[in-house]
Design brief:
The complex is a heterodimer of chains A (298) and B (145). Chain A is of the alpha+beta class and 298 residues long. Chain A is built from 5 helices and 13 strands. In chain A, the strands form 3 sheets. In chain A, strands 1-11-10-9-6-5-4-3-2 form a 9-stranded mixed sheet. Chain A has a two-stranded antiparallel ribbon with strand order 7-8. The radius of gyration of chain A is 26 Å and the shape is globular. The chains are: A alpha+beta (298), B alpha+beta (145).
Chain lengths: 298, 145
Amino acid sequence: MRTLVTVEKGVLMCLALLLLTAPVGAESPAEQRARAFARLPNWTGQWEIVGVTPDAQGGYVQSLDEVVAEMRKWGPPPYKPDVQVVFDKAAAKVRERSVAAANGTDAPSPGLRPACSFGVPMLMLFSPLMFEILTTPEETAMIFSGREIRHIYTDGRPHTAKDDLWPTSWGDSIGHWEGKTLVVDTIEVSNPPGLGGGDGPVIVAGGGDNDEVSLVATLSSEAHFIERIRMLDKDHLEDRMTIIDQKDFTAPWHIIRQYQRVTRIHRMVHEDCEGEERNPVVDGRFTVAPPPVPASGK
Amino acid sequence: MTERTPIARPRARARIVPSGVLLALAMLLDTAVAHHSFAIFDARQSITLHGVVKEFRWKNPHVFIQLMADEDAAVAAGEWSIEMTSPEHLVRAGWKPGTLKSGDKVTLVIHPVRDGSKGGQFVSRIAADGTRIDLPSPRHAAESK
């Protein structure tokens, strides 16, 4: 009997020893993922760009001058001299068209289609759309109210191989976390349909009644974007973006944008460009059409 | 989207068009920052409509107020289509689908359509005491001073 008790004590001691000496890192994959989740900042909620606030009329609370002045704080794009000449002409042309459009003396371009996509970098720099940011250990998704989505993979993968990659409005994004800062690396960005311009992305600002726009920058299709996104306080995020464009720039271009929480709505509401379209182009001019008659005719 | 060709271009040709800043920019930006340009409305003119809301069409991509306007010296009586921005932008500006209801008597300030038809861009509502309601853009704010 005494022998049996001694054996039981020995087994219990061995078990206790095993538990005490078990390696700390021996977590299950689920536990590891939960720990990775816990390290991420919580950026849930709805966000909007500071200084680009849509109003009820279809324009912006800020004037074009105010919007452009804020963007000018970034300094001009560091263009190569020959590119600068082309950009200046393009910007002047845009100004001319903008004034003509505001005065109603300019017709829409032939084959015009609605501009329903902003793409990168416009989504982060000049867009009236609100957005959400969902962080997981493997991916951060940025969901914009225009139903554009940025997928930023943070699982350690490299960029997609060149032979499996093609230009899109949002490019190919990978990222990693440096503490609470998300570092995003984006390549292969094309200009969204409807924005006009060449193959590379453009940065455009609007303001006031939205008749007038200003060309802030054009980029080549080789532009490479590095963003450092972090929370400044519970109601503000910041994106420090560096644009490297070896084709057009003499140096990297550094940009800072801030975002604030949307205050009047606490859920995502999406835009739909394909909804009830009542602004057809007739004789080269946008018009306002009467409401559609219900199918029943009633 | 422009198709890309794997065929290398001669270097001299590449310098002719030095970047993505292509001359196609000349046809740029009718609608660069909105679903469509609001240049269809004459922002230099503002008219005031008194009437009854026939329907508040809370639809994408743009909300419309269908207003049965009273006859006025400057306004033709009948149904007017008053265009606003999108539901997404409106809720952020404090509007809701029920902000206006059929049968509501309202006074609206609009920028009329340039072609003279019975349509316009919403600018603001006028309350019974004469004050303008809604968050105006800078140009509209200047008008209301």
